[in-house]
Amino acid sequence: MPLSDPPVPDKDAKSADERYAACSWAERPGLAGVQASRRLEVSVRLHLEGVTPAKAEYDAAWSGARTMEGTSKGAPGSLRAEAPVLLRVGDQAFAQHLTLTGPLGQSGTAAATVRLRNAVITVRFRATASPAGKDASPKTPEAPLDKANGRAAAEAAARSATAALAACGTCLSR
């Protein structure tokens, strides 16, 4: 994200059975050239007890994503979601694209969740755009995060993070 603020690492979380680390980058509305609010988040959870808890975490994420598939409409607006499987990424992987359209504008999220042995990697791109007069955000006629570009970027970031972990001989071992 070329116009982002400096990356903000989350505090690493450690417990007896897992390690967690995450980092986020944000492009705020009002910065030169920024037409919408955008954010990238990358997280990795390493399950020290092996593959079984990593599979359980991945399966829960996959189940939740599949439950949201389709379109729903209600008072807050309409939500459109899909969650296709990704091939040749880690041991298991899926992408997810969500768009929400409501009275305050549009938001989009493109994400990829990957299980690589005992690690679960999540990459999430988010963007929001609001129509004139609804808030203080810069206005743009474009959707905040279109499916093709958002999904491709989330997949590329997930592939890169997965390749980095796979290349690290001691990162995934227990």
What does this structure look like?
This protein is of the alpha+beta class and 174 residues long. The protein has a single domain, classed as 3-Layer(aba) Sandwich (Protein Transport Mog1p, Chain A), CATH 3.40.1000. The protein is 22% helix and 40% strand. It is built from two helices and nine strands. Strands 1, 2, 3, 4, 5, 6, 7, 8 and 9 form a nine-stranded antiparallel beta sheet that branches. β2 (13-14) and β3 (18-27) form a beta hairpin. It is globular, with a radius of gyration of 17 Å. The model has no long low-confidence stretch (mean pLDDT 80).
Q: Quick summary of this structure?
A:
This protein is α+β, with helices and mostly antiparallel strands and 174 residues long.
